[in-house]
Write a structure and sequence with these properties.
The structure holds two protein chains of two kinds. Chain A is mainly α. In chain A, 80% of the residues lie in helices and 0% in strands. Chain A has twelve helices and no strands. Chain A starts with a helix and ends in a 5-residue tail after the last helix. By secondary structure, chain B is α/β, with parallel strands linked by helices. Chain B contains eleven helices and ten strands. In chain B, the strands form two sheets. Chain B has a six-stranded mixed beta sheet, with helices on both faces. A four-stranded antiparallel beta sheet of chain B has the order 2-1-4-5. In chain B, helix 10 packs across helix 11. Chain B is globular, with a radius of gyration of 19 Å. Chain B starts with 14 loop residues before the first helix and ends in a 5-residue tail after the last helix. The chains are: A mainly alpha, B alpha/beta. The interface between A and B is medium-sized, with 20 and 27 residues.
């Protein structure tokens, strides 16, 4: 009896491995998405493939159709394995300085993102500090800030690029400015909230000690705003990336993930587009992860409850 | 503060006399900030009973959406140096408001108010008082030691002085060894003791406390009450204490101020002549019960039941 219990419980214990149980929900969702993707790829590409077979008067079976629709050269929707294969070749198949390398393009976009993010975050914080301290600014400035984000960036981006180009600014900076234009907004909104977050007793304490406005800012308002700052920066950094990519589209830039997307759509290279999109999402995940890591380090120094 | 202080604040002195010696009093107020309070003995405190707080015909009316609310109306009160005075009354009687007026966290609409012989605002700018709020309100990103050092940083004390004082006052509230901890690692009672150490850290002559133990359980409250009395006895500070507990008020105070709402006003001032080194046991003595009874009667008479 004991023997049979052991025999029965062994596979069950295997399934309950902590690493597996922790990641099980993620794994299930990813597998389900991939399955749906494969089905969708077949359904979307099968018409094209059938037409091609019929034109060439080739005899085909259902199996041929399915395998051909998952390996078409210019599919409507490439299958995941095609994207991964192209991605691997684009990333590892060329020296990183080659214009055919996805690493090269990613770096071009990433450098514009970094500059844009820094400008945007700094500008966002400065605006928030002004808004919090000057009541008139809150009324006069905030509608313009919100309005600025209602303009479709795809319409503004070419204007910015052309105007800056006419005064001799090309390359990284115009892209960074578009990136900053998008990314300052969440920082401003988050920091206004954060700088106003100290509760009345904490402010009254400062008053009982006759603290100067500068002391109130550095010793109370700023530390109180730090959690809000990091929440905003996480949103802001992904928007920075989008801004940099959008900034590469209107000029038909020679390099960058945006240029890669554009080239892919000119030549109907759908697999290349998807590989570039994969690179963009990996970059975004990396950037958010970096902000998250900084957040954890800062919060540990600020005595956060683990 | 110890000698040569004009005796103009003895009860009955007119407002004009008070006004004439203001600059002198201001000077003394400034000196006393850095003077070790332990120099004062019980005897010379009794000899130099200056008014730490002098309130004359004070009124405060808040303008709200549904009309004016009279938070305080015609309040008169003198608190001498070294006294322990409690404000007691039901919610809405203006006891916290009166404390906030003394601290210059609110401005009166009528009447006169001096703290250490100068206006409340001047006293605040002189850093004449330490304030303990209902909640500990520690800054969560600062360690316990750095929380106590915060007012010292703001007031420009040197780094060694800050560290030395933080250690001294944390020891005074029995929290040595907790310097590196963060507020969330301490219980509510310990946090409130940190906030008391913080209020004392710059050695103000006046300690304003707004229901500091209101959120604590009975046992911690008794314990902290005793500790607070020891501290008051040791440092000879003037304490103004807001509470809604009759035993707490009678046990701690040299004077209990009974207040009543709508409009907020003082209805009775009761002296408690228990020895300064009293212990919790006195709460069972007939004298204590008699004073507590008088406070209760005062509260009852001030309360209108017909609303």
């Amino acid at each position: 009896m004991t023997n049979s219990t052991v025999a029965l419980s062994r596979p069950a214990a295997h399934w309950r491995h902590p690493a597996l149980t922790r990641h099980a929900p993620v794994i299930v969702v990813v597998l389900a998405l991939i399955a749906v993707w494969y089905v969708a790829a077949v359904l979307m590409n099968i018409g094209l493939v059938r037409d091609a077979f019929q034109r060439q008067e080739i005899h085909y079976t259902i199996g041929d159709l399915i395998s051909a629709s998952l390996n078409a050269k210019r599919p409507l929707l490439p299958a995941p394995h095609q994207i991964l294969a192209t991605f691997a070749v684009d990333v590892f198949g060329w020296p990183v300085t080659s214009p055919r390398s996805l690493v090269y393009h990613s770096w071009v976009t990433l450098s514009a993102t970094f500059v844009g993010f820094l400008i945007g975050a700094a500008f966002g914080i400065v605006l928030a500090v002004l808004i919090v301290h000057l009541r008139t600014l809150q009324k006069s400035l905030l509608p313009w800030i919100i309005g600025s984000q209602m303009v479709p960036i795809l319409a503004v981006a070419p204007i910015v690029i052309v105007v800056l180009g006419s005064i001799g600014l090309r390359g990284l900076l115009p892209k960074s400015i578009i990136s900053a234009y998008l990314s300052f907004f969440p920082v401003t909104i988050g920091m206004v909230k954060g700088l106003n977050s100290p509760d009345p007793i904490q402010r009254d304490l400062m008053r009982t000690w006759s603290a100067t406005p500068a002391q109130i800012f550095w010793k109370l308002r700023w530390p109180s705003a730090v959690p809000f700052l990091f929440a905003s920066l996480k949103v802001s950094v992904t928007i920075s990336l989008i801004g940099a990519i959008v900034g590469e589209l209107p000029t038909g830039a020679q390099a960058g993930i945006g240029a890669r997307l554009l080239a892919g759509s000119y030549y109907g290279q759908t697999v290349q587009i998807w590989a570039a999109l994969l690179a963009a999402s990996l970059l975004a995940a990396g950037l958010v992860g970096l902000v998250g890591l900084t957040e954890r380090l800062v919060q540990r120094r600020m005595g956060a409850q683990p | 503060m110890t000698s040569g202080v004009p005796l103009w604040t003895s009860p009955g002195n007119g407002g004009a006399a008070r006004a004439s010696v203001r600059p002198d009093a201001l000077l003394h107020g400034a000196q006393s900030m850095h003077e070790p309070a332990a120099v004062l003995t019980r005897a010379n405190v009794a000899a130099t009973r200056n008014a730490a707080v002098d309130v004359r015909d004070l009124s405060l009316t808040f303008a709200t959406a549904d009309g004016a609310v009279e938070a305080l109306s015609g309040v008169n009160l003198q608190i001498a140096e070294g006294e322990f005075v409690s404000f007691i009354g039901p919610s809405g009687c203006g006891k916290t408001t009166l404390l906030r007026l003394i601290a210059d966290l609110e401005r009166p609409t009528a009447g006169a108010l001096t703290v250490n012989g100068v206006s409340a605002e001047e006293a605040r700018l002189n850093r004449a008082y330490g304030y303990v709020f209902q909640a500990p309100a520690l800054y969560p990103w600062r360690s316990i030691e750095k929380n106590v050092m915060l007012p010292l940083e703001i007031m420009g004390f040197s780094k060694t002085e800050r560290r030395e004082r933080a250690g001294r006052y944390l020891a005074l509230v029995n929290l040595s060894g907790f310097e590196r901890k963060f507020p969330w690692q301490l219980s509510g009672g310990m946090q409130q003791r940190v906030s008391i150490a913080r209020a004392l850290s710059f050695d103000p002559a006046l300690l304003l406390m707004d229901e500091p133990f209101g959120a604590l359980d009975e046992i911690s409250r008794d314990h902290l009450n005793e500790q607070l009395l020891r501290l008051w006895d040791k440092t000879n500070k003037t304490v103004v204490f807001v509470t809604h507990s009759i035993p707490e008020a009678v046990f701690l105070s040299t004077k209990v101020v009974v207040m009543s709402p709508r409009p907020g006003r003082i209805i009775d001032v009761i002296d408690c002549d228990f020895p300064r080194d009293r212990t919790l046991e006195i709460r069972d003595t007939p004298e204590f019960i008699k004073v507590a009874h008088r406070v209760r009667m005062g509260l009852r008479s001030g309360h209108s039941y017909d609303e």
